[in-house]
């Protein structure tokens, strides 16, 4: 009987081919841009007598004696000798009988490994071995070692990359006058980086200062600049409603009603924003300011300008708690001035929601506050003039894009009016980053805290001092103050099921709540986490804000924006699990009033050296810009860009800190290319950014 052989599925890939695909190495260009991590020099042979212990060298030897020994474990020992007669012992703990046979006495071997001085003289443990005679040719270039994976053997990857390098379209797109002098052509640069000739100073490859590396970085930075400057030009052609300040309106009413005066910094940024939205091109501005700097009132003033000009304003926040807090504050500020504020969130459904939607569509609701519910499909603004996004980095790139597209107002003449966009963030962007990624963004910075704040003192304690810390809570509450206790919890999105992990962490926050309720008998201890129904969350927050609860045990749901000035102590459990920017955000929940505030970072042992220095950094500075700088050092710029959400690292080759001169050149040359050779500019962006180009505009 003949068994039919099943035809292989056409899409079936070999293990390594699948691994290539998983790494995104599925086009010739992607392969050509997969650069070596390091190089091995197999172009030279070192006489044993000249090799030093600890050095990695390649030597040519012949096997003198081969034996398998049973010491502590079975091992193959090869005694070898080089041309000059110096001896070398090779030791293999893992070996195949076939290898033992192939490496028989008399065989010539080319051996590469780290030389040691063992009991029996010179030796190498598990070197790379090739059977080769002394007159066999040496490679003409350094051997690349690529970032690989277990399923992707180095030899396979080397072949794939070499093939990709040949097939990839690496035509020189750029006219020479937009390339800094002294840099090789793109194809030559890549050929060089994959196969550097012997004698190339490896240090310049490793620190990426070699001209071939510079060329790649320049290509990438130029593509990025082109994309951003193009986006800026496109925006300049869009129309937006002109929203000039109208004296005697809501804005002036709000300014008069505030219990305090604006800081100079607030006044300055409010003016920057007002000047922007008075123009008929859409604003695209980031308002940054440290935690507690007072961004909300600046946003409210901008909203008031839009409303005075007869337009609507939407304010969107990443969490329901934060959105609700904004809502309350804005109601408190604006309703006395005769303004209706609408509220939209995922949890408000049915009749109430329909009423709000009608008020928004008919233009009765002049200010709409909410979560991303604000950009859902059934929300239609009558005439939206200004959209404000708080804590914009917490929204995914895709959501930010959706916002810009969705809120456009179609005009009868077929054109469209784009609303002005104000984004707010407490995670400051270092200047260089703002200049590059955000070439299509204006930045306003509030660099001053409102007066009368007392600085927050940060203490780092081991978990073993927990009881002492709890005692401190009692003192604080006795003095009429309030306390946050924060537990780590990775908040899954509301739609997601509880995973085993978040279950365990949920247990953590409820357990801590139980423990503190028991230990602090007689003191009101509340519990807040993302799993509570929104109404419960709001109720707990309200009781804490009103002072009915003295202690609030919470997950990071309180991270952004929550504002209870009477809170003077924050304890963060497992502080080592948080990012620096996140700790800074959390810590910003205290020190909002004039009372002296303390933040205690509790850490669990064992704590790594980096872990220690991270917590130390938190204790040493309360300056958000400084923390952002240290964070940047630790994590790289991707995180600032919402890379986690989009999965795209936006700069692969260039390093903003090091490549300032290249960046400056790219900034300078981009306009000429955009104006004189737009097709070349488009091809450059496509080649380097591809699908990521659209993301960079968000
Ligand atoms: P953030 O910039 O972190 O969003 P908020 O807007 O929440 O800061 O402001 C923090 C606190 O400071 C709030 O209680 C706010 O009412 C108060 N505040 C804002 N501006 C001033 C000011 N100029 N003088 C005094 N208090 C202010
Ligand atoms: Mg805020």
Automatic annotation (TrEMBL):
NCBIfam families: PRK10917.1-1, PRK10917.1-4, PRK10917.2-2, recG. GO terms for biological process: DNA recombination; DNA repair. Keywords: ATP-binding, DNA damage, DNA recombination, DNA repair, DNA-binding, Helicase, Hydrolase, Isomerase, Nucleotide-binding. Residues 479-638 form the Helicase C-terminal domain. PROSITE patterns: HELICASE_ATP_BIND_1, HELICASE_CTER. CDD domains: RecG_wedge_OBF. This is ATP-dependent DNA helicase RecG. Gene3D superfamilies: P-loop containing nucleotide triphosphate hydrolases (3.40.50.300). It catalyses: ATP + H2O = ADP + phosphate + H(+); Couples ATP hydrolysis with the unwinding of duplex DNA by translocating in the 3'-5' direction. It is an enzyme of class 5 (isomerase). Residues 276-446 form the Helicase ATP-binding domain. It comes from the Bacteria. Its EC number is 5.6.2.4. It comes from Ideonella aquatica. One of its GO terms (molecular function) is DNA binding.
């Amino acid at each position: 009987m003949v068994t039919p052989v099943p035809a292989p599925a056409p899409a079936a890939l070999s293990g390594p081919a699948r691994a290539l695909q998983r790494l995104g190495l599925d086009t010739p260009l992607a392969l050509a841009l997969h650069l070596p991590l390091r190089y091995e020099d197999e172009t030279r042979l070192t006489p044993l007598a000249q090799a030093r212990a600890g050095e990695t060298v390649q030597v040519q030897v012949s096997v003198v004696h081969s034996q398998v020994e049973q010491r502590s474990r079975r091992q193959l020992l090869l005694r070898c000798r080089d041309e000059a007669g110096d001896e070398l012992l090779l030791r293999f703990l893992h070996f195949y009988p076939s290898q033992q046979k192939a490496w028989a006495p008399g065989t010539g071997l080319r051996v590469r490994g780290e030389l040691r001085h063992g009991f029996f003289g010179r030796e190498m443990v598990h070197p790379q071995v090739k059977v080769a005679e002394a007159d066999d040719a040496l490679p003409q270039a350094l051997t690349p070692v690529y970032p690989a994976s277990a399923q992707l053997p180095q030899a396979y990857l080397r072949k794939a990359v070499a093939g990709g390098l040949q097939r990839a379209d690496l035509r020189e797109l750029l006219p020479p006058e937009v390339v800094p002098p002294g840099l090789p052509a793109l194809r030559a640069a890549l050929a060089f980086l994959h196969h550097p000739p012997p004698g190339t100073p490896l240090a310049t490859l490793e620190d990426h200062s070699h001209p071939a590396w510079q060329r790649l970085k320049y290509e990438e930075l130029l593509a990025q600049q082109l994309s951003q400057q193009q986006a800026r030009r496109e925006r300049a052609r869009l129309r937006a409603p002109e929203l000039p300040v109208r004296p005697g309106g809501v804005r002036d009413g709000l300014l008069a009603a505030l219990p305090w005066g604006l800081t100079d910094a607030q006044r300055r940024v409010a003016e920057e924003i007002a000047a922007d939205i008075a123009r008929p091109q859409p604003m695209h501005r980031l308002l940054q300011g440290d935690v507690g700097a007072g961004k909300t009132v600046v946003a409210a003033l901008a909203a008031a300008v839009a409303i005075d000009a007869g337009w609507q304003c939407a304010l969107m926040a990443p969490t329901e708690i934060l959105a609700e807090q904004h809502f309350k504050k804005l109601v408190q500020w604006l309703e006395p001035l005769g303004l209706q504020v609408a509220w939209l969130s995922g949890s408000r459904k049915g009749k109430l929601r329909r009423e709000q939607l009608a008020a928004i569509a008919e233009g009765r609701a002049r200010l709409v506050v909410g979560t991303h519910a604000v950009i859902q499909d059934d929300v239609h603004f009558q005439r939206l003039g200004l959209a404000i996004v708080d804590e914009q980095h917490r929204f995914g790139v895709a959501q930010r894009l959706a916002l810009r597209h969705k809120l456009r107002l179609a005009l009868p003449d077929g054109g469209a009016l784009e609303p002005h966009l104000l984004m707010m963030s407490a995670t400051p962007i270092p200047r260089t980053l703002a200049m590059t990624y955000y070439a299509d963004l204006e930045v306003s910075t509030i660099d001053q805290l409102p007066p009368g704040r007392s600085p927050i003192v940060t203490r780092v304690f081991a978990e073993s001092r927990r009881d002492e810390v709890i005692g401190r809570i009692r003192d604080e509450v006795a003095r009429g103050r309030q306390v946050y206790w924060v537990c780590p919890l990775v908040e899954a999105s509301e739609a997601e099921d509880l995973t085993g992990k978040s279950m365990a962490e949920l247990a953590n926050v409820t357990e801590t709540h139980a423990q503190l309720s028991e230990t602090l008998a007689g003191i009101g201890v509340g519990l807040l986490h993302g799993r509570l129904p929104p109404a419960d969350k709001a109720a707990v927050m309200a009781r804490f804000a009103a002072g009915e609860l003295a202690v609030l045990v919470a997950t990071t749901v309180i991270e952004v924006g929550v504002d209870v000035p009477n809170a003077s102590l924050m304890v963060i459990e497992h502080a080592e699990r948080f990012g620096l920017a996140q700790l800074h955000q959390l810590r910003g929940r205290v020190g909002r009033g004039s009372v002296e505030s303390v933040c205690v970072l509790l850490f669990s042992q064992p704590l790594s050296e980096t872990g220690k220095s991270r917590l130390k950094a938190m204790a040493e500075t309360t300056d958000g810009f400084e923390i952002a700088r240290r964070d940047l050092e630790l994590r790289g710029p991707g995180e600032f860009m919402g890379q986690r959400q989009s999965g795209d690292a936006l700069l692969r080759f260039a390093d903003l800190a090091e490549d300032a001169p290249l960046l400056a050149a790219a900034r300078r040359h981009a306009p000429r290319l955009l104006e004189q050779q737009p097709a070349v500019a488009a091809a450059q962006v496509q080649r380097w950014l591809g699908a990521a180009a659209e993301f960079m505009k968000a």
